[in-house]
Specification:
Layout: E1 28-32, E2 56-57, E3 60-61, E4 66-67, E5 77-95, E6 106-112, H1 120-124, E7 129-136, E8 142-146, E9 152-161, E10 165-166, E11 168-175, E12 187-188, E13 197-201, E14 225-226, E15 236-254, E16 265-272, E17 275-284, E18 290-294, E19 300-309, E20 313-314, E21 316-323, H2 325-336
Antiparallel strand pairs: 1-5, 2-3, 4-10, 5-8, 5-9, 5-11, 6-7, 6-9, 12-21, 13-15, 14-20, 15-18, 15-19, 15-21, 16-17, 16-19
Protein name: Probable allantoicase
Domain Allantoicase: 26-175, 195-323
GO molecular function, one term: allantoicase activity
Length: 338
């Protein structure tokens, strides 16, 4: 199949937030009332939508998305998605790429909070809250809907009124982890799943820098942060907000898959309010290598700046340590909010 690049209007600010439903974070399409033409799992595929005309299977034209039959009775079609990382949802993207005569004219989105591992029956009977009321949708378009509800949610239900096809669903937001899961153990203070975030980068030419704090091992050279080749003096940098104020004791800088484009050196500055200090001095890095540095640090920080010299890529950044008691209390308070 071939990939066609489509243009759209500039995205709203919420699309800079991570996709909480991403498969790489553990998201899953749990159920759909109908998937006669195309399977529900396509909704959260990570790669761009692919399409080739005049490719017919036993159920008709093949679509990279979720498509239901033509509805002949009252009601609407739906699919339930478990967020890989529960959190506060800032916006929804419903991409109807290549669905031109079979897209839903209207959509709505609901969300619920059921922690743990609920069954499908429990989810169907859950207390669902509308976060995107019934709204118009366009075919072969990236439809974007801001969300103002600030509650923590674990699942979303996308509704098509009355039927049709959707290529991709993105659920942007801010992770709100359950601090009880930390079990008072050291944790990765730079992990997206623990509430950390990328707040800035000097250059992100080849990849979205959020990849550097994603879970798991890097899958390829594209899975991480990589800059363009620097042609002027200076160096590149990446800013990260930690999951909370905490003391970092172990740094991991992973250049796996970066064989000819790894940085030559790296350093890390830590920030705690208005104060800054050196967390990791300028250190030589090797290509295609996970590096681990044990620190004699006892100063807490709320953010870091990773400097790479002069340019290149970083597959993963890990900062292991402990939250301060105050930060842990704040996280527990946020989690307990309805």
């Amino acid at each position: 199949m071939t990939t066609t690049v489509r243009t759209s209007e500039p995205s709203p600010d919420f699309t800079a937030d991570p996709d909480l439903a991403a498969r790489a974070l553990g998201g899953s399409v749990l159920a759909a009332n109908d998937e006669s033409f195309a399977e529900k799992e396509s909704l959260i595929r990570p790669y761009p939508v692919v399409h080739q005309t005049h490719t017919f299977g036993h159920k008709g034209q093949l679509y990279d998305g979720w498509e239901t039959r033509r509805r002949r009775d009252e009601g609407h079609d739906w699919a339930i998605v478990r967020l890989g990382v529960p959190g506060m949802i800032s916006g929804i993207v419903v991409d109807t790429a290549y669905f031109t005569g079979n897209y839903p004219p209207r959509i709505s989105v609901e969300a619920c909070r059921i922690d743990g591992h609920p069954s499908l029956d429990e989810l169907v009977e859950a207390d669902w809250h509308p976060i995107v009321p019934v709204a118009e949708a366009k075919g072969d378009s990236v439809n974007e809907y801001a969300v103002t509800d600030t509650r923590r949610f674990t699942h979303v239900r996308i509704n098509m009124h009355p039927d049709g096809g959707i290529a991709r669903l993105r659920v942007h937001g801010t992770p709100v982890p359950d601090p009880a899961a930390f079990a008072d153990l050291p944790l990765d203070l730079a992990a997206l799943v623990n509430g950390a975030a990328i707040t800035g980068a000097s250059n992100a030419f080849y990849s979205n820098p959020i990849g550097v704090i994603m879970p798991g091992l890097p899958a390829s050279q594209a899975d991480g942060w990589e800059t363009a080749r620097r042609r002027e003096p200076g160096h590149e940098w990446l800013d990260a907000r930690l999951a909370g104020r905490g003391v970092v004791r172990v740094v991991e800088l992973d250049t796996t898959h970066l064989k000819h484009n790894a940085p030559g050196w790296a350093s890390i500055e830590a920030h705690d309010g208005d104060s800054a200090f050196e967390l990791l001095p300028r250190t030589t890095l090797q290509p295609d290598t996970p590096h681990r540095f044990v620190l004699a640090n006892d100063r807490p920080a709320t953010a870091v700046r990773l400097n790479i010299f002069p340019d290149g890529g970083m597959a993963r950044l890990r900062l292991y340590g402990r939250l301060t008691e105050e930060a842990l209390a704040q996280m527990r308070e946020r989690f307990a909010q309805p």
